[in-house]
Amino acid sequence: MTDPIDSAVIEQQLRHRSVRRFLDVPVGEAQLERIVEAAQRASTSSNLQAWSVIAIRDPERKRRLSQAIGGRDYVERAPVFLVWVADLARNAELLRAHGAEPETLGLIENTLLGAVDVGIAAQNALLAAESLGLGGVFVGGIRNAPEAVSAELRLPRHAFAIAGMALGTPDPEEGTGIKPRLPLSGVLHAEVYDPERWREATGRYEQDYRDYFETQGVPDRSWARTVVSRLGSAAGLHGRHAMRASLRAQGFDSE
């Protein structure tokens, strides 16, 4: 008997593409609630459910957030912009309500826990949205200006914005394709990590990456150059090199 390798869910996942242009069609409240319900079914460490999401529809608030993080027109134009928050504030208050002090919230394990919970839940949400005919894009730039974002969203101590998500009905004129990924040989290891496995895979990927961007009207694009630009110096972090101080300001000491 042949092992099954396809399903409607997998087919949906393999069709994923980032969407940055949207039709002027609202995301209904019932749709949004269903998407967040799907996010809530994501795995969560120790069932702590250490995340929250803030749905932003107000044009002025979207504009202020966009300006704070460097100008992202798809943040402003999205029918709804979601901000995914690592939220230990709720559990901190629960602890205090039961006569306990949240002594461990400054430990790096709980910083990681909140970020991991957000990532798993938010990906569930995007997949759910895509299954409804919507599209979106994650916005890591929400971390470019943590203090401004925290102030705009009135985040309490022990809450930190991890990622944004612009969400809406895709504009069919955008023309964005399905961006290629590294060959499986570059990411799938057997039993132990192979430190040389990346070489052949990234060499093959360079051409796939270049070919894809040619179809998007961007010639001579290099994945290697992109990685060097993003990770080679602090300038590529767009202000995020000061993240430790920003986390501490919100109560994530990460000790």
TrEMBL record:
<protein>
    <submittedName>
        <fullName>Nitroreductase family protein</fullName>
    </submittedName>
</protein>
<keyword id="KW-0285">Flavoprotein</keyword>
<dbReference type="Pfam" id="PF00881">
    <property type="entry name" value="Nitroreductase"/>
</dbReference>
<comment type="similarity">
    <text>Belongs to the flavin oxidoreductase frp family.</text>
</comment>
<keyword id="KW-0288">FMN</keyword>
<dbReference type="GO" id="GO:0016491">
    <property type="term" value="F:oxidoreductase activity"/>
</dbReference>
<feature type="domain" description="Nitroreductase">
    <location>
        <begin position="16"/>
        <end position="168"/>
    </location>
</feature>
<dbReference type="InterPro" id="IPR000415">
    <property type="entry name" value="Nitroreductase-like"/>
</dbReference>
<keyword id="KW-0521">NADP</keyword>
<keyword id="KW-0560">Oxidoreductase</keyword>
<dbReference type="InterPro" id="IPR029479">
    <property type="entry name" value="Nitroreductase"/>
</dbReference>
<dbReference type="InterPro" id="IPR016446">
    <property type="entry name" value="Flavin_OxRdtase_Frp"/>
</dbReference>
